Amino acid sequence: MVVRKIGLLLLLVLLVGLAAGCISDSHPSRTQTSGTATSGDYVVVNGTKIYLDKIHFYMYGMKTCPHCRRMHTLIPETYGNDSLTYYELVGNEENIELFRAQYNITGIGGVPAIAITYNGTIYALIEGEFNVSMTPKIIAVAMQNNGTVLFVRGKAYILPRTDPEVREDLKKLYEIYVEHRLPDNSTG
Predict the structure, then answer these.
(1) Is 90 within the bounds of a domain?
(2) Residue 76: is the preceding peptide bond cis (ω within 30°)?
(3) Is the pLDDT of residue 179 over 50?
(4) For 135-174, what is the HEC assignment?
(5) Which of the four pLDDT bands, split at 50, 70 and 90, describes residue 40?
(6) Separation CA 186–CA 132 (nearest Å)
(7) Strand locations in the chain, DSSP E?
(8) What is the CATH classification number for the domain harbouring 114?
């Protein structure tokens, strides 16, 4: 998979709160003050409107993992009860097989493993806890770079959508996270 590193300044901004245990309970700025996103709520990031009700999270996790439990709580608290699709790994062979498949593409081997979609497109793949209030900024950075942000092993990368190999990998990741199925191997 072809990737390019995000600039140092951008990386530092995005990594604030990414390390496990460094999560803020703050919510993104909104057009209203409710605790969860509703239709019409948005934030503006560098001139781009990000509608909060179009953000969805897909997470592979383990009930025994405190970081997974924290993300499993914070995401719905911030973005609404319907904002998270959770796949439990403990005792679930299907989910373990899907998790292995995503590892082969992304290198994400730890949990929580989170895909962030906006309007049905994957804009970020994150290994570990992160500051959920940064989600609109992460999406905006990915959009502005015509790619998907990958956070793995403490590093951040942009996966450029202009690269055919990356597009194929993102299609497979969409199947794993969003459609919850193994990718069709006949496509590559």
Answers:
(1) yes
(2) no
(3) yes
(4) HHHHHHHHHHCCEEEEEECCEEEEEECCCHHHHHHHHHHH
(5) confident
(6) 36
(7) 4-5, 42-45, 48-51, 55-61, 84-88, 113-118, 121-127, 147-152, 155-160
(8) 3.40.30.10
pLDDT of residue 176: 98
* pLDDT tens digit sequence for 67-104: 999 999 999 999 999 999 999 999 999 999 999 999 99
CB atoms within 10 A of CB 117: 19
Tell me what the pLDDT averaged over the chain comes to. 84
Amino acid making up residue 44:
V
Task: Note whether 54 and 118 are within 8 A (CB).
Answer: yes
The total number of structural domains in the chain stands at 1
Residue 121 lies in a domain: yes
Is there a contact between 170 and 176 (Cβ–Cβ < 8 Å)? no
User: Which pair of structure tokens corresponds to residue 77?
Assistant: 């608290």
| Model confidence pTM above 0.70 | yes
For the chain, the C-alpha Rg in angstroms (whole number) is 16
CA atoms of 30 and 37, how far apart (whole Å): 8
Pair of tokens at residue 4: 């390019």
- Measure the CA–CA gap between 75 and 70, rounded to whole angstroms: 9
Q: Is residue 46 part of a domain?
A: no
Burial class (CB in 10 A: 0-12, 13-18, 19+), 66: exposed
Report in angstroms the alpha-carbon separations of 16 from 11, 13, 20, 74.
9, 6, 11, 17
